């Protein structure tokens, strides 16, 4: 079974024959190449071109995060899975406004319904269900974004009721996050983005053609689209878990006048639990087979491909438990 | 422009193989929606091929047909290595197609086909006759028609569970 490798310390990736080694101050650790699914680099990472050659050959993406834990970019190996027919369909669904907005709404719908599930778990009343029908009347993407914004505003407000008082927050602030919850959301969201990108890499989808987000907005905006659906499931639930179980405390953050970020220890805790979640399996209703949360993102890509090929209309993933 | 019959021969062995197994898989594979890269069964097949006949060389002809190995014993003997006999018919037709291709495009008449099952130590010899040739011509036309249409709806079969496209088809 392939897995994600999270490199937390500074070090170097070297290749010897067909093995990649991570070398840091503690020594040299081999990483068997056929065990790597993706690499997440949080420390400062040096790598030899030989190592990159091998990673490229095996189609392994490396995601880079800076000192503050922000996503910097990815080593996205040369595409191996290309389907001209699919790319044409993917672009066509972007260019045709009706088709584009249909998919964009589905992403918002999926995200909203998953947020609703998260709140329902804590028995919290919310307005999501009543705002969601407003999507029907949206004719342009900014209107869709607007509905999404209203849903999120209600959702974030409700999050405070789940969190202990010292973790409460007023609103979502990015770059830099100014309090602990914003720091956790930002950190988690960038992880989901990278995870989604790795999944897209392993399909024939082109990561730059997106529907909810503008393709020009960020380089791999399709990963942003897919992340929306999984953020409540993978990040928000994890935050409540870590905070309410007191696995994270104020000591795990680094604070300044105008920013707040997870420190090394906090990051380690978060990443460990995040990875546990990715590996966790559920019995899939349609497939009647166990699938991991990570695999759910892949399945979402498959559903999108089927939609683009016209073989089955896309329905976003919504937790059924 | 390619003539119709030439165009018809832009088909690879895998497509003939898939034609007998599943039309959805044939369509997706042919439109480059490929999934085999993650399939353990496919890797196993490749490994078997590499380990079983180490001294033999694989031949790829016109970038279309890939013959596991060839022997010359009075006639040209095309060899195909397979893991098990569960998909007997599709294996046979894949090899028949290679024979047909070499006959049509290269004018080689005296060809024999052998399917090797190293795991069960069995060999099956097949011959191309006129009725098989006619059948192949129909199959080639039919494949062309399938590929021009929309993705065929998958049909649930026993073999679905082992297929690399399982999740794709049924999610």
Automatic annotation (TrEMBL), chain A:
This protein's UniProt keywords: Antiviral defense, DNA-binding, Endonuclease, Hydrolase, Magnesium, Manganese, Metal-binding, Nuclease
InterPro entries per record: CRISPR-assoc_Cas1 (IPR002729), CRISPR-assoc_Cas1_C (IPR042206), CRISPR-assoc_Cas1_HMARI/TNEAP (IPR019858), CRISPR-assoc_Cas1_N (IPR042211)
Residues reported in the UniProt entry to bind Mn(2+): 148, 213, 228
Required cofactor(s): Mg(2+); Mn(2+)
E.C. numbers: 3.1.-.-
Gene Ontology MF terms in the entry: DNA binding; DNA endonuclease activity; hydrolase activity; metal ion binding
GO biological process: defense response to virus; maintenance of CRISPR repeat elements
Keyword Repeat assigned: no
NCBIfam families: cas1 (TIGR00287), cas1_HMARI (TIGR03641)
Known function: CRISPR (clustered regularly interspaced short palindromic repeat), is an adaptive immune system that provides protection against mobile genetic elements (viruses, transposable elements and conjugative plasmids). CRISPR clusters contain spacers, sequences complementary to antecedent mobile elements, and target invading nucleic acids. CRISPR clusters are transcribed and processed into CRISPR RNA (crRNA). Acts as a dsDNA endonuclease. Involved in the integration of spacer DNA into the CRISPR cassette.
Subunit relationships: Homodimer, forms a heterotetramer with a Cas2 homodimer.
Protein family membership: Belongs to the CRISPR-associated endonuclease Cas1 family.
PANTHER family (alphabetical): CRISPR-ASSOCIATED ENDONUCLEASE CAS1
UniProt-recorded name of the protein: CRISPR-associated endonuclease Cas1
The species this protein was found in: Methanobacterium bryantii
Automatic annotation (TrEMBL), chain B:
Top-rank taxon: Archaea
Co-factor(s): iron-sulfur cluster; Mg(2+); Mn(2+)
Signal peptide: none
Source taxonomy: Archaea, Methanobacteriati, Methanobacteriota, Methanomada group, Methanobacteria
Keyword annotations: Antiviral defense, Exonuclease, Hydrolase, Iron, Iron-sulfur, Manganese, Metal-binding, Nuclease
InterPro entries registered for this protein in UniProt: CRISPR-assoc_prot_Cas4, Dna2/Cas4_DUF83, PDDEXK-like_dom_sf
Organism expressing this protein natively: Methanobacterium bryantii
Class of this enzyme: hydrolase
Listed GO MF terms: exonuclease activity; iron-sulfur cluster binding; metal ion binding
Protein name according to UniProt: CRISPR-associated exonuclease Cas4
Annotated ranges, domain DUF83: 13-170
């Amino acid at each position: 079974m392939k897995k994600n490798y999270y490199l937390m310390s500074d070090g170097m990736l070297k290749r010897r024959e067909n093995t990649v080694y991570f070398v840091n101050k503690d020594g040299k650790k081999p990483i068997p190449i056929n065990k790597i699914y993706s690499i997440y680099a949080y420390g400062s990472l040096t790598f030899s071109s030989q190592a990159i050659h091998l990673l490229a050959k095996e189609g392994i993406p490396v995601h880079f995060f800076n000192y503050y834990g922000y996503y910097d970019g990815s080593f996205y190996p040369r595409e191996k899975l290309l389907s001209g027919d699919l790319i044409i369909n993917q672009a066509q669904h972007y260019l045709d406004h009706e088709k584009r907005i249909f998919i964009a709404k589905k992403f918002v719908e999926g995200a909203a319904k998953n947020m609703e599930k998260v709140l329902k778990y804590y028995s919290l009343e919310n307005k999501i269900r009543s705002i969601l029908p407003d999507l029907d009347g949206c004719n342009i993407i900014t209107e869709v974004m607007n509905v999404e914004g209203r849903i999120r505003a209600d959702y974030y407000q409700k999050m405070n009721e789940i969190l202990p008082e010292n973790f409460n927050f007023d609103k979502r602030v990015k770059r830099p996050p100014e309090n602990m919850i914003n720091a956790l959301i930002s950190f988690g969201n960038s992880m989901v983005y990278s995870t989604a990108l790795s999944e897209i890499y392993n399909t024939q989808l082109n990561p730059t053609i997106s529907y909810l987000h503008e393709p020009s907005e960020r380089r791999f905006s399709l990963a942003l689209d897919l992340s929306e659906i999984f953020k409540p499931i993978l990040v928000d639930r994890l935050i409540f878990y870590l905070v309410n179980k007191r696995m994270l405390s104020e000591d795990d953050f680094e604070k300044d006048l105008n920013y707040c970020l997870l420190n090394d220890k906090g990051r380690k805790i978060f990443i460990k639990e995040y990875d546990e979640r990715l590996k966790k399996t559920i019995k899939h209703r349609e497939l009647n087979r166990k699938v991991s949360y990570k695999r759910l993102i892949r399945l979402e890509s498959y559903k999108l491909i089927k939609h683009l090929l016209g073989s089955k209309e896309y329905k976003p993933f919504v937790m059924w438990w | 422009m390619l003539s119709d019959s030439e165009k018809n021969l832009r088909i690879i062995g895998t497509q003939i193989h898939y034609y007998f197994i599943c039309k959805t898989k044939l369509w997706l594979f042919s439109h480059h929606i490929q999934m085999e890269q993650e399939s353990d069964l496919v890797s196993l097949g490749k490994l078997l091929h590499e380990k079983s006949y180490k001294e033999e060389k694989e031949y790829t002809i016109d970038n279309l047909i890939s013959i596991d190995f060839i022997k010359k014993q009075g006639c040209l003997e095309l060899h195909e290595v397979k893991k098990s006999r569960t998909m007997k018919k599709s294996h046979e037709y894949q090899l028949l197609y290679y024979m047909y291709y070499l006959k049509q495009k290269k004018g080689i008449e005296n060809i024999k086909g052998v399917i090797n099952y190293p795991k069960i130590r069995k060999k099956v010899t097949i011959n191309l006759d006129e009725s098989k040739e006619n059948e192949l011509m129909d199959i080639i036309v039919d494949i062309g028609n399938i590929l021009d249409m929309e993705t065929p709806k998958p049909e649930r079969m026993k073999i679905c569970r082992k297929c690399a496209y399982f999740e794709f088809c049924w999610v």
